Amino acid sequence: AFIFIGVFQGFLISYFLISRNFSGRKANLFQGLLLLALTLCINEQFLNMTGLITRILHITNTSEPLNLVIGPLLLLYVKRSLDMKGSSREWMHFVLPALYFLYMCLDYVQSADYKYNSYVNSFHPDWPLLDVTLRIPDDPLRIKRHLNAITALQILFYEGAALYLINGAAGKKGEKLFSAQDETIRSLRNMVSHLLVIIVIFVAVKLSFEGDLGDHFIGVYFGIFTLLTTFRVMNDSAYFEGNATFIDITASSKYSKSSLTDARKEEILQAIIDEFERKEYHTGNLASLSDLSKRIGESHHHVSQVINERLGKNFYELLAHYRIEKARQILTADKQGKVTIEELSEIVGYNSKTAFNNAFRKLSGMTPSEYRRSVNS
């Protein structure tokens, strides 16, 4: 049940990372694909452990090629997070998983009885097998028996490459890899470290258990981090706009090692206030933490920190505060009721009348129409 919840959260978070393309961040696309690949692998593991796979035998072993995309996706995510430019040759990272997928087609076309035997061999080695005649040879090159070793070595190679890039980025900022205070460096380092733990568990399980018995240890570890990530998303409105990773649990103290001095925080605060009060940044319907950060020339992390520490709000709460305050001013001045609620919602930056009404009610205790009647009575 615990692994099922982890799988569900994995699908949910990867959906947001991939489909919404938050702030146009390519890094989040690769992170979403990485999480999706891991989730699909753990999901098949869940189906095998519960026996539900016997009801859908045609998908048996379909996630095996995904083992070989984890490393490449990790490296590409790290490169994009460090603002490294992409290369036209990056597709070559996926040649091995593509070739293995084609090889696995020999397995996919086998009968349901064959796939049942595959399930029994992996999870119930003491059960009797069915008498099966292969349609075509399923593993003529004897590659599948070495998949676990290939997977572990390949991911270790890509993790080494990722750590090399992270260490290089830390050096350019005058920091050391394992004591870095930069949020991006620290978050990426922790993500690679946790994936390394998964590989250690993977190797230990394969050495200690027959077949795929013991894989639940990997599923539990994965489930822990998807659940913790869910709590982080719930508590951080800007989660998807930053460099935070789905498998890093250091966010609870994300400001504890900030390099910002009180004087620098005050400068950033004044820049934020100037954007909202003088330039009325909040009236733009594309307002976002990353865009505001670019306007004032600061990292989104520092801007978020100042808003949280100095104003006691997150970015979206601050945005709603200024928008609703602007709406109140317009409603108070519009004695003739010439501005409709739909027009008002657009004027103050909302794309949806419903979202505007909900925000207005939350901050004012009444709807815009009720507020208009109250000031004109």
Query: Percent helix among the residues?
Result: 55-70%
Total beta-strand segments: 0
Taking the sheet with the most strands, its summary is: none
Distance between the termini: 57 Å
Structural class: mainly alpha
Q: Outline of this structure?
A:
The protein is an all-alpha fold and 377 residues long.
Description:
The longest helix has 26 residues, at 147-172. The mean pLDDT is 87. The protein has helices at residues 2-19, 26-50, 70-81, 95-108, 112-123, 147-172, 183-208, 216-235, 262-277, 289-296, 300-311, 315-333, 341-347, 353-364, 368-376. α1 (2-19) crosses α8 (216-235) and α12 (315-333) packs across α14. It is an all-alpha fold. The chain has 15 helices and no strands.
State the main characteristics:
elongated, mainly alpha, 377 residues, 63% helix
Task: Please describe the topology of this protein.
Layout: H1 2-19, H2 26-50, H3 70-81, H4 95-108, H5 112-123, H6 147-172, H7 183-208, H8 216-235, H9 262-277, H10 289-296, H11 300-311, H12 315-333, H13 341-347, H14 353-364, H15 368-376
